Amino acid sequence: MQHLCTCGAPLLARYDLERAARTFSRTTLAARDSGLWRYTELLPLRELRNRVTFGEQPTPIVHLQRTGLQIGVQSLFLKDESTLPTASFKARGAAAGVSRARELGVRAFAMPTNGNAGAAWSAYAARAGIAAHIVMPRAAPPINRLECTASGAHLTLCEGTIADAGRIVAGEIAAHRWYDASTLKEPYRIEGKKTIAFEFVEQMHWRLPDVIVYPTGGGVGLIGIHKALLELRAIGLIEGPLPRYVAVQSAGCAPIVEAFKQGKRESSAWPDANTVAFGINVPKALGDFLVLEALAATQGTAIAVSDEQLLETQRRIFSTEGIFVCPEGGATLAAAIDLFAQGWIQKDETVLLINTGSGLKYPEAV
Ligand SMILES: *Cc1c(COP(=O)(O)O)cnc(C)c1O
Questions:
Q1: Would you call 156 helix, strand, or coil by DSSP?
Q2: How do residues 296-310 score in pLDDT, each as one tens digit?
Q3: For residues 196 and 89, is the Cβ–Cβ distance under 8 A?
Q4: How far, in Å, from the CA of 222 to the mean position of ligand 1?
Q5: N or C: more exposed end of the chain, with fewer CB within 10 A?
Q6: How far is the CA of 56 from the centre of ligand 1 (A)?
């Protein structure tokens, strides 16, 4: 089992795209069951029967018509990932990651988390009969702790941030030889996360949005979206320019925004990281350089919004559209408003916001 390159960088799965192109087409897809395993040629399982699944369904794309009119962007859409198992986008990563771990014969894994990933991996591990060892900052949303312990995972709370949790996990893995399921330290979580892009491209009838706004913590979602779109392009299912990606972070933890501004290829650890949008409280991401590469490749950008702003837009989406997004999802609208004001987003462009989870998980935020 290989986790990282010998140089310490993440490994990315590669597929025989020529072979995949023979069976992965608009028409064959149209005839398949819904759910993320429909993209099987571009997913890492050797045998589909090894999958661990709750019957994940495609998440809706909702037209934010009234909000769009208010802010001046007509084609404003939200992909609402809160309908996935465990109510966050992390289910995609866990579905692929735990399935592949089971296929590889893993009996126990360990991972650091800001909360939602731990919750999702615990649930999938319970279903797979694999032991989950989760390390989480004490400040993470209380519901995330309960989700882990009640589904039978072994939970350790730590002081500090996910970076401190990561150090504890590294020690545990060295001591017990558990499978390392840390973000980007195994190549399969990102494969699950990338299915969000296959899905929205299909839902948008194979047309791409102009702009995608993603609340960026470890950045796996964005790296996954980029990887998926490159694979679709290589297979010949999409053409033309890719959407411009926007990585949005909280002003309380914005290492990627800072690196982007300074034109750096990597970020520096953000001191005293702190934001109510806990899922994006990542002071230094292992895949930061991949996020920055994806932004550069698409003429994208990175932007920070304050906690006040993102809480305000979270409430605004709920009161205007009826969707209770998570604070991280709120941040995407705050970013879109700022970028429109700056003239970076034009009024006739199609903008896709990604809501990564349910607001129900953070009742203390509203
Ligand atoms: C994990 C998480 C994010 C950030 O996702 P990355 O792919 O790690 O950047 C955003 N929002 C929520 C709710 C999350 O749980």
A1: strand
A2: 999 999 999 999 999
A3: yes
A4: 10
A5: N
A6: 18
